[in-house]
Amino acid sequence: MDMGQNVAPVLEEHRDKVLELGKLVEGEIVAAGDVGTKTDDLFLLRFLLSAKMDVGNAAEDVRKCLEWRKENIEQLRHVKENGTLPGGELFMKYQVVGYAGELGELKHPVFIVRVGLCNTKGLLKAVEHKQIVNMMLYNSEISFQICDQRTRESGKMVKMVNVIDMYNMSLFQADRRFAKCVGESSHVSQFVYPQLLGKAVMINVPTALRYMIKFVNKLQSKKTVEKQVICPAQKTHKLDASTCPFISDFKAAPTLPDFLGGTNTTYANTLLPMEERESTKHIQLDSRSSRKFSLILAKGETLPPLCEIEIEKGSIFVSAKFQDQVLIDQKLITSSESLVTLQLKCDFATGGTLVVECFNETKSKVPFKITLDTCEFAPREE
Length: 382
Description:
Blueprint: H1 7-13, H2 15-32, H3 41-50, H4 55-71, H5 73-82, H6 89-93, E1 97-103, E2 108-114, H7 120-126, H8 129-154, E3 160-165, H9 176-192, E4 197-203, H10 210-219, H11 222-226, E5 228-230, H12 245-249, E6 280-285, E7 289-297, E8 306-311, E9 315-322, E10 325-334, E11 339-341, E12 352-360, E13 366-373
Parallel strand pairs: 2-3, 3-4, 4-5
Antiparallel strand pairs: 1-2, 6-13, 7-12, 8-11, 8-13, 9-10, 9-12
Domain CRAL-TRIO: 87-268
Protein name: CRAL-TRIO domain-containing protein
Pfam families: CRAL_TRIO (PF00650)
């Protein structure tokens, strides 16, 4: 079904097929209960369209979809309620991805992957294969919830547009293990999220990398590959993307970020290069209050994380804990000490969450700056 096409006429045209499919999977739908989305006629139509109106194949995919959604229902509820990846902090630490821009009046959402800026090898060392696949699928759930809601509100099919920005990408960044993660998530998405992907647009593609794309495509589902297009636009971080026919057709430049040749300069922190992401927070702590700051550390961390505090006026107490181990207990820091670097001594190699808590026990507000970040990632032992 095309992006922006009216749903009602298509649903009416295939009413008999929808009813037939509904009867075939009625028992499974009732047994599954809450699966995080409506399981109505629109839900069934998506499967029929992707199965080219083969009711038997559509029924098989519906059953697999219900089973997967039931197994992952807690994570899917988190996505629906919060619009974020459940437990995705560590995953996002290595990825330069995010939503930015919308296409046309129906606001087809645009999800961008800045492949050349992602730390794929670091991700593979820090996160297990299955978890990477799950994070990709949970991200598709975010896209599905957005598109499904807009489809129901407009009566027209709203689909996801993935933009793969390959600027600064080299062959040395390619990794077969990550390609397998992409391939596996693609095959699961085929039966969990039918009719979700509108287009996958590759932009800033170096000629030398086109053979690598062919390799990755062999691992992905056929339907995903069929929706791929390679945009002729190059160097969009310096030039506008007027040479991209897809962007021009939708008049999308005002909503797309500047590094894709658009005019939008405000977008998610997760789309910034790793070195440009803000790790310093400016805080004003109210009287007799506290704030917690957390940092997820990957397994294999060998250097202690960096924690610096600078008090502009007044004083605060600071505590730090890694997992269940107390590292600092009620340390007093005052404005007279200038910049203070906390000495965090612990075996961080096991991986886990570092929590730093700041307390203001005075009657006045205390403005301060805190920097909490990792110093360096070392490969974990295989």
